User: Which sequence fits this backbone?
């Protein structure tokens, strides 16, 4: 069976708020996603702080393709397919490190950090006819760009520039990247684990779904929250006492061009989940600087969820930044990073790392509940009838509006505006051959939403 | 091509301690205590398990990385980060979470088997008790048919504690998993 564009359009109806669950479990669609979504969008590779010196490399993925990101001698950054041009062996094997060359373990072809093939063992004897080494360098990722410390790669020469692609999600991302002079850095290493679920389930949750927190995380809320008398604070003295949705003054969801974000307006600069006292205190101590750089709304925006389409997610306040690397239609590999202000004192950085682990590491008090839902969903979708029974995506339908205190299409936080936008963008990329068409569709949908 | 330079690999300092000669009865007493502790977890007697954790216990796991040998020699291997970093009261909150009946990762709860083996025991360097190094298998059978196996090493430090039910308490536990990418969707069980 070959899936047609018409079939794909039929799987997502943003006007009535219905989706067809085959989008999460179809192998043919997955192949198409690798080409038309992961082959065309801007994908997070790593943070500049992870490769500070010339020759420093960091191994990652763009979807299923292994990629090595390497700092050049002149300080610039390049990224290459981690694939030897002789027989496809991986040429860089450690998670990260420093090197002068990438030497393939199979037959010893050796590439410079600039990707050029520099040495071929026994070259004159093995290639008496001559080998044009200039032709056989590592395949370079078409475009690599940096946004405030985050490095992204894109295979598509036609794709819009990174900042244009980001659009208004950059305003929300700045709430993490730009709170203080000096930017951010990654604290410690990367937590990596697999979840047997389609990549769109976690991406959608981080883009759009605050609604699950009330129920999914009820056990964490019960055992970590302080009692109303403030007398039962188990995990750090500065944490917000009550779940943020109980005390928030207002709450917003933003969703546009596949990206999504949401947050609560809080009274004080506190994170909404249970961070160490040092972390809360740090946010209070630095709120003036953040206010000056970002304004009142974002300075206090510490209870927020976010996804930059397709697979980079982060949470404000709890310092988790992650990528959902797809691994077939039924699995993701999560790469979870702790991101914090570079200017934070050393002991505060340590507190960030502890807090982020405790809440959102693979053993995190909150993380555990999320992955459980997604793996169970994926199991249900093995069923023939389950795979064809439509799902409800109606929350907040028709209540989209523009606000004057933040950019983009918004709704009340408990809505599915960003989810509808994510699936709409997913369809657009799968069925449109050009970015001009994708943008045309996005524009008319946005106009329709806020008319 | 350059001739390969063959170097003797450096032996990490922490593994050169001679096999300790420990009184056989004491060795038996300690291993038996650790088997009992494992049984508490496997039998879902989590409060009993907490009872053998000292008030000052530190319970750790860090991520594992792939590092180049030449970088390891220069100690510039990839940075690691926490997976667990717990105090007694945080362990207690983990157990309180399980007790809510709404900790969905463990609802219904996993069946676990803790296999603790290859124990080597010596006096702890901090002078406070004994250090037990072991190899470790945790088998987790979850929901209908999910199976996960966690394999690694564990370093425990235990001390005699008068007035406790079993005469011993654990005051330090460091778990190292061999996996770089953890191939399960969460770590909702205790090690
Ligand atoms: S595959 Fe790399 S040298 Fe042959
Ligand atoms: Fe969640």
Assistant:
């Amino acid at each position: 069976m070959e899936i047609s564009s018409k079939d794909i359009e039929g799987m997502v109806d943003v006007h009535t708020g219905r989706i067809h669950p085959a989008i999460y479990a179809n192998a043919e669609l997955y192949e198409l996603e690798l080409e038309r979504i992961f082959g065309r969008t801007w994908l997070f590779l790593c943070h500049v702080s992870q490769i500070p010196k010339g020759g420093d490399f960091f191994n990652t993925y763009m979807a299923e393709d292994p990629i090595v990101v390497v700092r050049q001698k002149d300080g610039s950054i390049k990224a290459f397919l981690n694939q030897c041009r002789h027989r496809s062996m991986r040429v860089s094997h450690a998670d990260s490190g420093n090197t002068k060359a990438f030497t393939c373990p199979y037959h010893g072809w050796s590439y410079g950090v600039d990707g050029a093939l520099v040495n071929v063992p026994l070259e004159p004897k093995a290639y008496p006819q001559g080998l044009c080494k200039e032709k056989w360098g590592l395949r370079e990722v078409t475009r690599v760009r940096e946004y405030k410390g985050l490095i992204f790669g894109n295979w598509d020469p036609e794709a819009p520039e990174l900042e244009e692609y980001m659009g208004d999600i950059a305003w929300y991302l700045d709430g993490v990247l730009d709170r203080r002079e000096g930017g951010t850095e990654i604290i410690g290493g990367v937590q990596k684990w697999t979840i047997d679920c389609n990549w769109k389930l976690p991406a959608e949750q981080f883009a759009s779904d605050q609604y699950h927190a009330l129920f999914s995380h009820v056990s964490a809320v019960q055992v970590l929250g302080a009692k109303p008398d403030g007398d039962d604070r188990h995990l750090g003295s500065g944490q917000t006492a009550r779940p943020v949705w109980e005390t928030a003054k207002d709450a917003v969801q933003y969703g546009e061009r596949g990206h999504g974000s949401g947050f609560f307006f809080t009274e004080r600069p506190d994170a909404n989940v249970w961070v160490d006292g040092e972390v809360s205190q740090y946010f209070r101590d630095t709120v003036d600087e953040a206010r000056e750089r970002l304004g009142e709304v974002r300075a206090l925006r510490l209870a927020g969820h976010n996804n930059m389409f397709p697979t980079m997610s982060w949470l404000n306040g709890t310092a988790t930044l992650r990528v959902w690397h797809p691994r077939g239609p039924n699995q993701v590999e999560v790469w979870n990073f702790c991101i914090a202000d570079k200017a934070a004192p050393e002991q505060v950085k340590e507190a960030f790392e502890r807090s982020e682990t405790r809440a959102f590491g693979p053993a995190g008090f909150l993380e555990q509940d999320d992955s459980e839902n997604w793996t169970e969903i994926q199991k249900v979708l093995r069923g023939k009838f389950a795979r064809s029974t439509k799902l409800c995506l109606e929350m907040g339908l028709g209540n989209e509006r523009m606000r004057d205190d933040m950019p983009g299409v918004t709704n009340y936080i408990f809505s599915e505006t960003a989810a509808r936008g994510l699936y709409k963008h997913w369809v657009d990329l799968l069925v449109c051959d050009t970015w001009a068409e994708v943008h045309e569709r996005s524009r008319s949908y946005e106009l329709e939403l806020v008319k | 091509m350059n001739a390969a330079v063959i170097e003797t690999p450096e032996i990490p300092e922490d593994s050169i301690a001679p096999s300790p000669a420990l009184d056989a009865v004491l060795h038996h007493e300690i291993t038996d205590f650790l088997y009992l502790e494992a049984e508490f977890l496997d039998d879902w007697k989590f409060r009993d398990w907490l009872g053998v954790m000292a008030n000052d216990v530190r319970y750790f796991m860090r991520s594992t990385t792939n590092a180049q040998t030449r970088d390891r020699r220069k100690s510039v291997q990839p940075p690691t980060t926490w997976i667990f970093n717990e105090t007694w009261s945080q362990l207690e909150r983990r157990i309180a979470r399980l007790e809510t009946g709404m900790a969905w990762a463990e609802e219904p709860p996993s069946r676990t088997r803790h296999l603790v083996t290859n124990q080597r025991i010596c006096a702890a360097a901090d002078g406070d008790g004994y250090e037990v190094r072991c190899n470790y298998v945790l088998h987790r059978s979850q929901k209908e048919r999910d199976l996960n196996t966690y394999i690694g090493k564990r370093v425990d430090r235990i001390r005699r504690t008068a007035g406790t039910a079993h005469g011993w308490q654990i005051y330090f536990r460091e778990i190292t998993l061999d996996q770089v990418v953890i191939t399960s969707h969460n770590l909702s069980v205790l090690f």
Remarks:
- Chain B touches chain A through 42 residues (CB under 8 Å).
- The pocket of fe (ii) ion (ligand 2) is lined by residues A 212-213, 216-217, 366, 370 (CB under 6 Å).
- The beta strands of chain B are 53-62, 82-86, 111-123, 130-142, 146-160, 168-177.
